[in-house]
Design a protein that fits this description.
By secondary structure, this protein is α+β, with helices and mostly antiparallel strands. The chain is about 30% helix and about 30% strand. The chain has 16 helices and 33 strands. Strands 7, 8, 9, 10, 20, 21, 22, 23 and 24 form a nine-stranded antiparallel sheet that branches. A six-stranded mixed sheet has the order 1-2-3-4-6-5. A hairpin with a 6-residue loop joins strand 31 and strand 32. Helix 2 packs across helix 4 (about 195-220), helix 10 packs across helix 11 (about 450-465) and helix 15 runs antiparallel to helix 16. The chain is globular and about 100 Å long.
Length: about 725
């Protein structure tokens, strides 16, 4: 049983029913001569874990590329970085679609059958996992589809070949669910503009729908029926209600307080830090769980624990949704305080300490010979064509960073994934011809918020401290999402986006949206969701959190841009924003931080402060006041708060003059001028006094103080009087 799909005129084949038939679900996906088999198996008895025990293993086989492993055993050994990172991408794409409370051991195995060196198998593995789960009886709310999007010479390419990807400025993987819902995003970019990035996501998401339809057709042909699970581990409503209304009696006062009120008091006290807030909530938790155990002696421990979690989660989320309040007192778009230090230790090639709120990262830079570069495995070399890399970032997350005790040494999947994201964020600014191997180490000393984005910031500082000629500084931030879903159809009714999220906002929220970039554009993006998909509108808003569109009338374009684009260059140099012209009167302003956007708004407001102006009538005569005498003419104003414009010598008199003094003109003198609209190229006002010296009559327009411009006010109608 197979189905052939065509994505941008390239055939992708989905098949099932021939290989690995003992698995709950099995599928083979082929693109070109690259083929991946994916199997899905899930136990029917629940696990003792209090989370979804999903394991995804993506394994590369040297035989698939026609090679023999070069290690001493000549066989595949431990998982490579590429295998672990691809496993994480697959996990993040499928995990949100499992039913809530499905705590049954589930394993997804991805086996490379053939690699042609042209098509990357990682995206095929995502689609294979989707097909295997959809064709199995495992409860799963899929299918999903995934594509890679490249950008070559301004053109978006779906599932680009290795050659195309080598010249692409974008490497974006999009996983989508039915009805154009976004499930997962992963991207590396070379300072891509925000509008180009958003367009690529839209194009990729549209192509994922074709894959979803192909999988749905296979499911329909097979007639798959999902199994009935023994139990879904969710908190019973009666225990949740009891937890919400647990009563606490004060030993010092006769008053009583509900558990929900005590939780609310903790979450609204911005004086708490991470540790004190966790301790206060845990104290309430212990007291509440003790009462719940007395009232529900037969309840399982998980039901008691989860009931309290549901109550505290609802209170936390409602604070954001209904009151626009965050537990640390910030508004929804504010960053935490940032402190930076460089040159921490003289013996190191480069070092920096980056602190954002209670997230603290120490980054160091080490140079070595080019022979110290990382050598790729045979499959990665066959797929990417890259044999080694001379820039690497290694991320460490010791247990003391969250006041915990744990095993030290080795590297887990989380650390590898966070380090890879920060490495992708920094790589586009490293010179390609740099003559040394660069190793950046990022050690998280405190963690209460995105430490991977802090690693990108600290790594950028350390690179500059080491003297690496980076093309631009890099910064990153994590954006969260709190949603309110409909009880009828499960759709999102309302939502709030949060900038620079805390650890607790990540824990109770629905999304971890990490984006890094320079003042020129985006360099890396990673989106993790807990929901089974979000509308693309929310993704666009998250990307545009630090982006603003401004409307500049043609009449003010010269003032906004400035002579020789002086004002635009000054705006970008002083604030770090990037300004892109969308059409004749619309500009997009991209800022790396909300502070930079605020500074840009103030700058634009200053140079365009009288942007609202009186509607002038073409061909009408107005009274102008001379404000300055120049060699080339006189500067005049038609109304009090108008920016003076030049009335050139050639338009002052029928006679040819070299200086306005020849006509006896003085500052403060009023003269009559005729208005001829705006210059279509630069928007400058066109006035003439010379034309009025002809015998033709005209209507004189008088602009009084009542017609003066007030920033942000309304524009009154101009009065007229006959000459």
């Amino acid at each position: 049983m197979s189905n052939r799909l065509f994505l941008s005129n390239r055939k992708m084949e989905l098949s099932s029913g021939k290989l690995a038939r003992f698995a709950d679900g099995s599928a083979v996906v082929q693109l070109g001569d690259t083929a991946v088999m994916v199997t899905a198996v899930s136990k029917t008895k629940p696990s003792a874990s209090q989370f979804m025990p999903l394991v995804v293993d993506y394994r590369q086989k040297a035989a698939a590329a026609g090679r023999i492993p070069t290690n001493y055993l000549r066989r595949e050994l431990a998982s490579t970085d590429k295998e672990i990172l691809t496993s994480r991408v697959i996990d993040r794409s499928i995990r949100p679609l499992f039913p809530a409370g499905y705590f049954y051991d589930t394993q997804i195995l991805c086996n490379l059958l053939a690699v042609d060196g042209v098509n990357d198998p990682d995206v095929l593995a995502i689609n294979g996992a989707s097909a295997a789960l959809a064709l199995s009886d495992i409860p799963w709310n899929g299918p999903i589809g995934a594509v890679r999007v490249g950008l070559v010479d301004g053109e978006t390419i779906i599932n680009p070949t290795r050659k195309q990807l080598s010249s692409s400025t974008l490497n974006l993987v999009v996983a989508g669910a039915p009805q154009n819902q976004v499930v997962m995003l992963e991207a590396t970019a070379e300072n891509i503009l925000q509008q180009d990035f958003c367009h690529a996501i839209k194009v990729g998401l549209k192509q994922t729908q074709h894959i979803i339809q192909g999988i749905q057709q296979l499911v329909k042909e097979r007639g798959v029926a999902k199994r009935t699970v023994q139990k879904l581990y969710v908190a019973p409503e009666e225990i949740v209600e009891c937890a919400n209304n647990c009563v606490f009696r004060s030993y010092f006062f006769s008053s009583q307080r509900l558990a929900s009120n005590k939780i609310y008091a903790v979450f609204t006290d911005s004086g708490h830090d991470k540790i004190s807030r966790d301790e206060a909530i845990n104290k309430i938790r212990l007291e509440t769980e003790e009462q719940l155990k007395e009232k529900f002696p037969e309840a399982e421990p998980y039901e008691i624990i989860e009931s309290f979690n549901v109550v505290s989660k609802d209170i936390f989320r409602n604070l954001v949704l209904n009151e626009y309040r965050r537990c640390d007192g910030r508004d929804l778009t504010s960053l935490r305080d940032i402190k930076c230090e460089v040159d921490m230790f003289k013996m190191l090639h480069g070092s920096a300490l980056f602190q954002r709120g209670q997230t603290q990262v120490l980054c160091t830079v080490t140079f070595d010979s080019i022979e110290s570069s990382v050598k790729s495995d045979v499959i990665s070399t066959a797929v990417s064509g890259i044999k080694d890399k001379n820039f690497m970032l290694h991320y460490e997350f010791p247990p003391y960073a969250t006041n915990e005790i744990g095993k030290v040494g080795g590297m887990n999947r989380r650390e590898l994934g966070h380090g890879a994201l920060a490495e992708r964020a920094l790589k586009p600014v490293i010179p390609q011809d740099f003559p040394f191997t660069i190793r950046v180490t990022s050690e998280v000393l405190e963690s209460n918020g995105s430490s991977s984005m802090a690693s990108a910031c600290g790594g950028s500082l350390a690179l500059m401290d080491a003297g690496v000629p980076v093309s631009s500084a890099v910064a990153g931030v994590a954006i969260g999402l709190i949603t309110k879903c409909s009880l009828e159809n499960g759709g999102i009714e309302d939502y709030r986006l949060l900038t620079d999220i805390l650890g607790i906002e990540d824990y109770y929220g629905d999304m971890d949206f990490k984006m890094a970039g320079t003042n020129k554009g985006i360099t890396a993006l990673q989106v993790d969701l807990k929901l089974p998909g979000i509308p693309i509108k929310i993704v666009m808003e998250a990307i545009q959190q630090a982006t603003e569109t401004i409307h500049v009338p043609l009449s003010k374009r010269l003032r906004f841009v400035g002579p020789g684009a002086y004002n635009l260059k000054k705006l970008q140099a002083q604030t770090g924003v990037t300004v892109s012209q969308l059409d004749e009167e619309t500009y997009s302003v991209f800022a790396p931080t909300p502070i930079a956007m605020h500074e840009a708004r103030e700058f634009i407001r200053d140079i365009c402060k009288d942007d609202q102006e009186v509607n002038l009538e073409f061909g009408a005569v107005y009274t102008a006041t001379i404000t300055e005498i120049r060699d080339s003419g006189v500067m005049v104003k038609l109304y009090p708060n108008m920016t003076p414009v030049l009335l050139h010598n050639s338009q002052l008199d029928q006679r040819k003059i070299k200086h306005p003094s020849a006509l006896g003109l003085e500052v403060g003198q009023e003269i009559q001028v005729k208005y001829f609209g705006r210059d279509p190229t630069d928007g400058r006002m066109r006035l003439s006094r010379k034309i009025l010296q002809s015998p033709a009559t005209a209507v004189l327009k008088t602009l009084t103080d009542k017609n003066s411009i007030v920033l942000g006010g309304t524009i009154p109608q101009s009065s007229t009087s006959s000459q």
